[in-house]
Specification:
By secondary structure, the protein is of the alpha+beta class. 39% of the residues lie in helices and 18% in strands. The protein is built from 19 helices and 23 strands. Strand 17 and strand 18 form a beta hairpin. Helix 2 crosses helix 3. It starts with 9 loop residues before the first helix and ends in a 26-residue tail after the last strand.
Length: 627
């Protein structure tokens, strides 16, 4: 056999090969898809777990089994990357909403690694099953062949929420990286619904709903004025500070303490131990003499780093020193890069929401079409069975007089009596009029005798009626075309978004900083109360789970005396420890004598966003009473 030598320029071959490799890494490994917000390995792990039946209400399964199935069927790139992806999706300090329920040692916020995959177990979280993997059997997304064309896998998952914003993303490709911060689920859903109502909405208007990132580790964003530019360009730097509070000594012999309860997201892992060693260096080098002792009291309940202070320590100076010399103040680089239509693209806030929402529209449209086709099929069969029950004697006569199933089907569908023996000529004439469809004929032949009981026949008719009602509902959503159909579909998807928002509500971590506030109340003209009066409030963010009601329906938070305002569509409330004037304020509200209010932080005189609203009866009505 003669050799066939192709002459080529070496540099051109290398260039083409490297470009092919780079695009493969960019599109098939490192960057998330803008539609479901998942990288290929994450998508394949979740789909493999779904295929294994690892539902949230079933026992955990060994991680090694999940990794093996994923690698053998969908992701032949080594077990370490698959297991690492599984671990990260289970860590609540890295993901806004963990997608995997891990059982065993899955690492810690301080950088401890997860145990080997043969020791740990996992299953899907409820939200993953219901909001990420639901409806895969309804032809809502395209399936593609796996690497050796022996299996099919979804090209993208039918995720109902913008996962790219909720859980963020990070990845290093060839010549590009992505780094998207996580956000609060409730805020993101509110923003999506706002986009559905007004597709021309701007990034600035969207930020009325998404006021900033919501890192699982908490912390305070100190350059909020830059967020609009970051969300508009998709690129920028977010400056984060840990949350530091002073705990005064309560007993003689105790020392004042500075407690760090929230840390910058970038401090996750070994950076916590580096932070502690940096503080030790400050003490050893006599940069500060205000710190007497350091202890890390962090646990599974959260971060708690305690600095014991000497008497008379300058707390504000020490805080500023920690921000300047350690990682307690750090920068999170934002680069909102994702795959859009097979190409990497830097997206703004609206672009991420738009890509996901349009994808969600298409998923809903395809789901309704699939359900409608199934309903047509079911309706066709039910109508055939009802018709057959009305002439069951004739059908039994046809079956008894036929030699095989083929003759029966020919008679039922085409009225072909052929060699069928009938007991009377009238029956033969009636048989020639039959015109059942193939599906109806098959259903009639499969009909069990007990289904001929009167009650069973009634059940068939009721089922046919319910199918007809569902048919009307689905047809209403799809009967329009173009923009009008999109509007109808958006109504459905907006309703679907309420389920994950209500069921999987997560309290925000980047809430406004607590402090001492004053509130000014101004009454209407012509009322008994005139002018303005001022009261002092101590305000602190409170998780919704902490708020309960007693048997009289009054709001309680622990054993304290609080006035609570629960904002509409918010996942946190603001609890205010009020003065003795609270009853008077409540009377003013009930009487409708209040027209304006303002909340101003008095700690440093800077005006800030309104935290507690006293606008109408609902503000301190049934939802928020003074205990």
């Amino acid at each position: 056999m003669s050799e066939h030598i192709i002459k080529a320029e070496f540099s051109e071959v290398m260039q083409k090969s490297y470009i092919d490799y780079a695009m493969s890494v960019i599109c098939a490994r490192a960057l998330p898809d803008a539609r479901d917000g998942l990288k290929p390995v994450q998508r394949r792990v979740l789909y493999s777990m779904d295929e294994l039946g690892l539902r949230y209400d079933r026992p955990h399964r060994k991680s090694a089994r999940i990794v093996g199935d994923t690698m053998g069927k969908y992701h032949p790139h080594g077990d370490s990357s698959i297991y690492e992806s599984l671990v990260v999706m289970s860590q609540d300090f890295k993901k806004g909403i963990p997608l995997v329920d891990g059982h065993g040692n899955f690492g810690s916020i301080e950088g401890d690694g997860a145990a080997a995959m043969r020791y740990t177990e996992a299953r899907l979280q409820k939200i993953t099953q219901e909001a990420y993997l639901a409806d895969l059997d309804k032809n809502v997304v395209d399936f593609v062949s796996n690497f050796d064309e022996t299996e099919k896998e979804p090209e993208v998952l039918p995720v109902k929420i913008p996962n790219l914003l909720v859980n963020g993303a990070d990845g290093i490709a060839v010549g590009m990286t992505t780094s998207i911060p996580p956000h609060n689920l409730s805020e993101v859903i509110d923003a999506v619904k706002a986009y559905m109502r007004k597709e021309s909405i701007t990034n600035e208007e969207l930020m009325e709903y998404i006021q900033g990132p919501d890192f699982p580790t908490g912390g305070i964003v100190i350059n909020k004025k830059d967020l609009l530019n970051i969300y508009s360009s998709g690129i920028g730097k977010i400056k984060l500070r840990g949350k530091v509070t002073l705990e005064p000594a309560k007993k003689r012999g105790e020392k004042d303490k500075l407690v760090i309860s929230e840390i910058p997201y970038t401090m996750i892992g070994n950076n916590i131990s580096k932070f502690l060693s940096d503080i030790v260096s400050l003490i050893e080098n006599k940069v500060t003499t205000d710190i007497l002792d350091i202890s890390n009291e962090s646990s599974k309940d959260g971060i708690r780093i305690v600095l014991e202070l000497r008497k008379g320590a300058d707390v504000e100076r020490l805080k500023n020193l920690l921000y300047k010399k350690t990682k307690l103040e750090d920068t999170f680089g934002v680069n909102m890069l994702a795959i859009v239509n097979g190409r990497p693209e830097t997206l703004d806030l609206k672009g991420i929401i738009e890509n996901h929402t349009q994808f969600h529209y298409e998923v809903t449209r395809r789901k309704y079409k699939t359900l409608l086709n199934k309903l047509y099929e079911q309706r066709e069969i039910k109508e055939g069975l009802i018709k057959a029950c009305d002439m069951i004697d004739l059908i039994i006569e046809i079956i008894r007089g036929s030699k095989n199933q083929k003759e029966v089907k020919a008679c039922l569908t085409k009225g072909d009596v052929g060699n069928i023996r009938f007991q009377s000529s009238d029956s033969m004439i009636e048989a020639t009029k039959l015109s059942f469809t193939d599906k109806q004929a098959s259903a009639i032949l499969d009909l069990k005798l007990y289904r001929l009981i009167g009650l069973e026949v009634l059940h068939i008719k009721i089922a046919a009626k319910s199918i007809a009602d569902a048919d009307v509902k689905l047809t209403d959503a799809l009967k329009y075309t173009g923009q009008q159909q999109t509007q109808e579909i958006s109504k459905v998807t907006a309703g679907n978004l309420e389920v994950p928002k209500d069921d999987y509500e997560v309290s925000g971590n980047q809430a406004a900083e607590a402090g001492v506030y004053t509130m000014t109340i101004t009454a209407k003209e012509g009322t008994n109360f005139t002018g303005s009066r001022e009261w002092t409030y101590v305000v602190a963010p409170v998780k919704m789970s902490q708020i309960t009601k007693d048997k009289d329906g009054k709001v309680q938070i622990g054993h304290g005396t609080f006035s609570v305002k629960i904002e509409q569509d918010k996942d946190t409330a603001q609890a205010a420890l009020v003065t003795s004037e609270a009853e008077f304020i409540e009377k003013l509200v009930d009487a409708g004598d209040i027209t304006a209010d303002e909340l101003t932080r008095t700690a440093n005189g800077a005006s800030m966003e309104l935290l507690l609203h006293i606008q109408n009866e609902s503000s301190l009505g049934e939802e928020s009473r003074t205990q």
